[in-house]
Every structure is written in C-alpha cells, then in structure tokens.
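Q: A small favour: would you put together sequence and structure tokens for a protein?
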Amino acid sequence: RGFCLFVGGGVSDSRRVFIAATAVWQLVTWEGFHTATCDLFSLVFVFPFALFALRRTITAVYTRLAAFAFAFAWYFVIT
C-alpha cells in the first residue's frame, strides 16, 4: 500500500487528507490484520497532517456546504 510509505515531504494538503481518509475508511471496513495494522500506522502518522490541512481549508468547506444547503432549500422549499 502506497500510503504506508508516507514521509510527509512535498506532499500536498489534499493528498494528506486523501491518505488519512483512506486510512480511516480501511480501518472502519477492517480488511484484515495486515491492512488494519498498516492503516493504523498511517492513521497515527498521517492524520495529524490531514487535520492541519483541514484546519486551513475548513472555511471554504463550510462555505460550499452552506451554498449547497441554500440551493437544496431553494429547489425543494421555495419552488
């Protein structure tokens, strides 16, 4: 698994988020002992970087969610 070789240098924020999300997903689905161990390693060492990246982009995420909620409400409630 490629993300087990994560070293942190030169990796974009979106890549860190993707790696951490993949680790969390595979921990949840629990594909086997080796996979779970590998993903636990990734979770411990990658997730802090992902949280830092998310902290930098959380405002943009909330803005997009608010826009989606408004469009959803406009389509189903107002029209």
Residues 15 and 26 are 16 Å apart (CA to CA).
